[in-house]
Amino acid sequence: MRDFGSFDFLIVGAGSAGCLLANRLSRDPGTRVLLLEAGGRDNYFWIPIPVGYLYTIANPRTDWCYRTEADEFLAGRSIHYARGRVLGGCSSINAMIYMRGQREDWDHWAALGIRGWGWEEVLPIFRGLEDYQHGAVDGYGAGGEVRIEDPRVRWEIIDAFREAAAECGIPPVKAFNGGDNFGCAYFQMNQRRGRRWSATNAFLRPVAKRPNLTVLTDAHATRVRLEGRCATGIEFTRGGEACFAGARAETLLAAGAIGSPQLLQLSGIGPAPLLERLQLPVHHHLPGVGENLQDHLQIRMQYKVKNVRTLNTVAASWLGKAAMAAEYFLFRTGPLTMPPSQAGAFAKSDASQPTPNIEWHVQPLSLDKFGDPLHSFAAITPSVCNLRPSSRGWVRIKSTDPSAHPEIRLNYLATEEDRRIAVDGMRFTRRIMAARALMKYQPEEYRPGQSITNDNELARAAGELGTTIFHPVGTCKMGPDQMAVVDAQLRVHGVERLRVIDASIFPRITSGNTNAPTYVIAEKGARAILKTLQSGRT
Known about the structure:
By secondary structure, the protein is an alpha+beta fold. It has 13 helices and 26 strands. The protein starts with a strand and ends with a helix.
């Protein structure tokens, strides 16, 4: 086994959290930091081009290419489950949509007994990280590393959807992220002048030449090495060779909601019955490792429209494609700057909800499923999702082989509450699409179709149309209860010198895209580590 020596900090995973951690922990030139990334460098042509997600998701060069287990209420389907496997992690392949979540999300965390994680405590951290296109206005910060910009293309059909939403009680707003996202707006994105702004751009590339920071790509972590209940380093493979690096201070797992619980379980930290069944030594029984998996399921209702331009019609000809390419490379504007969804709306599925609990991702396009060609007709896809699903799944290793994918079971729509909210969301979507503002486009429901009307049929259709928005969280949840994996400082319960710092620590999923909250988790984790380090020196 090749020995890479000893570092102060080892970070597993160069995604959104890992890049920020590497930046913060290597600021002190006397501290040596090693960042391990299983994927390769982020020099693929399609990564910086926003529409390039079409070529990075389901591409083994940049995606782990996981698949979920078949879900009963998803018509027995197994679905592709993209996770970034490249420098920048998911921030190199995601939708780029910037969403803090709502005040209620963070205050719920604090109400669970997790001190320091309420909205008023995380809001200054968001602002400190932000670099808003228009400066420190609209509630945003300026001068931070995370660039936030307005969209660089607009669509008549999207503007009409916003007007229709207003007719149905959802007001137009300039921007989300103020604490209560009620309203409808174009999404703001992590882009800089029409190019993706990933965690690599924000945090890693600016400090890559620090002599005390070592970044190893194609380095697949296989096990946390333990002495008793103390983490001492990471075993990993690189170029087919078994390797080890030691950690003098701490080992930090930032491998995400799939990778971090998998690595803990492979290391003998997790539910004892699972480890014993696979004949793995149980170093520490921690039943919550891999449990509490949550995600947002979007129900992709689709409508044919007339008398309006959509991406389906623009991309239908070589001339249209050439025009889009020319506009992008000449001006950095147009459809190639698009995230998967252009606009969003937040509302309550029913009056009893304390805050908006459903969200629409609105797209000026339609297709059968991700990776398939666009339909030949003009269309709009208003996908609706339940922001606070009650269904829970898990991530569990199926083998002691670190290269084998774990079992990923979401149990989408498994609860009656989730099925009811799905149906309510679909009915709400139909009200918006029937509003006066859209009448001149003659919307015709293509999927699931107007013939499906009763609740049971709609719930079944939700399972047939539903797919992930790629927001897995919760599998190493933070908290004081028996199923929690880390404490409020993100230290693994019962194991010394080991933390998990990524989206797996969410106790409950936030309202919307999860990349921005992951940056805050990493920033808070870095501050906790540096405070511990400082107190140890004094």
